[in-house]
Amino acid sequence: MRLKKLLKTAISATLYHSGLHRALRSRNALTILTYHRVLPCDDSRYLNEQPGMVVQPDTLAMHLRVVSKYYTLIHLDEWVSRYQNGAPLPSPACAITFDDGWADNFEYAYPILKAAQVPASIFIVTDMVGKEYQFWPGRLAAIIRHHRLPQQLFEQDAHPGIHWLLQLLPAPIAQFQPSTAAIDAIIEHAKMFSDHEVTQHVSHIETLLGFSGNSSSHTPEMLSWEQINTMTEDGLIKIGSHTRSHARLNQLLPEQDMRSEIEQSSIAIKHRTGISPSLFCYPNGDHTPLAIELVSNQYHAACSTIPGVNAPGQLELHLLKRFTMHEDISDNESLFICRILGLF
């Protein structure tokens, strides 16, 4: 993994010095950037989070400086409104989005956005607002990293939850190394099961190992409604829906539950903020034709996890493309530019 990062860094630096970054100005399209958590590297939350979910505050600030040089930064819902009404569109344009609604978005991201006067959208999971809750990928990552895990697995391999986890490991437990890539691969493999199944297994393993998947500091992991309303007061931050419980909108989710996730989250946001959200974001990017239909009935546009730009003539408003950012692939300017050009 380290060698791969060094190779990407060298290639990106060469491309940058060759003038590739000038291609950003020629885009007649909307570029959307996706973030999740913003935390310093010495924060315990940074150390315990799933790989690929975090950027450091200085990295986010650098990203905003770079995109400000090449793009018109705009609220995503404003761009969508202009597009729907046939109004002139800034070109090239960039919209900033955050998924899940983590408390660190208020603690670290919001001051950076405010100082730079960069607008952004935060997609919140309404049932989790103000909670200590950790989503199951982060909890599973913490289990895999746990220093007692290998011995526990040898001793408890008959336990249903442990047996389930052993099937996800890419190598026998004696040879397994919990690298960033390995943890991400295990989490992706676990997504073949329903959210309910994975959560049950993760909870059973946590009980066996004697630790909780919730925050050990007893402080909320997720944004509170007070923080949300503070950020939205001056219009710099706008709130979109990311469902009620972060349920993946795939074939494993019953239609009644899917309707509730999509519709009730909008009602909750309107009730607590006074504003009906116009934007939606699919958890994990999962969607079915039914999910797209239900979302289209409720929201003006929706974000996917499909990488790419959104050209006006080739636009799917309810499957908007985005580039996901995290520290490892964007911690310097040349890597970041290559990422938003779709090269890495």
Could you explain the architecture of this structure?
This protein is α/β, with parallel strands linked by helices and 344 residues long. It contains 15 helices and 10 strands. The strands form 3 sheets. Strands 1, 4, 5, 6, 7 and 10 form a 6-stranded parallel sheet that branches. The longest helix is centred in the C-terminal third of the chain and has 19 residues, at 255-273. The mean pLDDT is 88.
Keywords for this entry:
single chain, 344 residues, alpha/beta, TIM Barrel, 2 domains, 6-stranded parallel sheet, two-stranded parallel sheet, 10 strands, globular
**Radius of gyration using CA atoms only:** 20 Å
> Average pLDDT across residues?
88
For CATH, the homologous superfamily of the largest domain is named as Glycoside hydrolase/deacetylase
CATH architecture of the largest domain: Alpha-Beta Barrel
Following the backbone from N to C, one meets helices and strands in this order, namely HEEHEHEHEHEHHHHHHEHEHEEHH
Q: Gap between N and C termini, in Å?
A: 14 Å
Number of DSSP strands?
Answer: 10
Please state the structural category: alpha/beta
Highest-level CATH class of the largest domain: Alpha Beta
Biggest β-sheet: count, sense, barrel? 6 strands, parallel
Helical segment tally? 15
Strand content: 5-15%
Residue runs with pLDDT of under 50 for 5 or more positions: none
Count of domains: 2
Shape: globular
Helix content: 40-55%
